[in-house]
Design goal:
Length: 171
């Protein structure tokens, strides 16, 4: 009888902790969703394909804090993805989640890193794409295994960002 009571108490405590964790995750998602609107699921104009690669979507974080995962709008879920760089922006098609489209004007920087939140890889193994959504600075980390594809995607994004800067100078 004592074992059964302990099992019931343990199960109750586990259920309470699990429900608190789910509640905290949802609250964080709602709070973050209040800060900015949902990112696009597709680009208005795609333009030509500059680069593409198979990747692992690691996370989207705050631009200033790569240890704070963004949960809102499904951006917190990791998974496999197809990365497409078009002349008009970036499209990340994630398995089991809504696509993430970032227009060229939103892109601000691209760099290589080694670690973010819960993922550490070889030096320069992660591609970090910095962008803005409603004036909130965000960074999306991608793990592109093929070195050639990683460099092609990085170069294409840098080309877009440089042309954005040139457009701003002309204005």
């Amino acid at each position: 009888m004592a074992k059964q009571i302990m099992a019931i108490i343990s199960l109750s405590i586990f259920a309470l902790l699990a429900s608190l964790a789910v509640r905290a995750w949802r609250k964080r998602s709602y709070d973050q969703a209040a800060e900015f609107t949902a990112p696009l699921e597709a680009l208005e104009f795609f333009g030509e394909v500059l680069a593409q690669a198979k990747a692992f979507y690691v996370a989207t974080t705050r631009g200033t804090n790569h240890l704070e995962r963004i949960n809102a709008y499904g951006l917190g879920a990791r998974g496999f993805a197809q990365v497409l760089v078009f002349s008009e922006g970036l499209l990340i098609v994630r398995q089991g989640e809504r696509p993430l489209a970032i227009e060229r004007a939103q892109l601000t920087a691209v760099e290589f890193s080694q670690a973010t939140i819960d993922k550490a890889v070889e030096p320069d193994g992660l591609l970090s794409v910095s962008w803005y959504q409603d004036s909130v600075s965000l960074a999306t980390q991608l793990r592109i295994v093929e070195t050639g594809d990683r460099k092609a995607v990085s170069s294409a994004l840098k080309e877009i960002i440089e042309s954005n800067k040139q457009r701003e100078v002309i204005k």
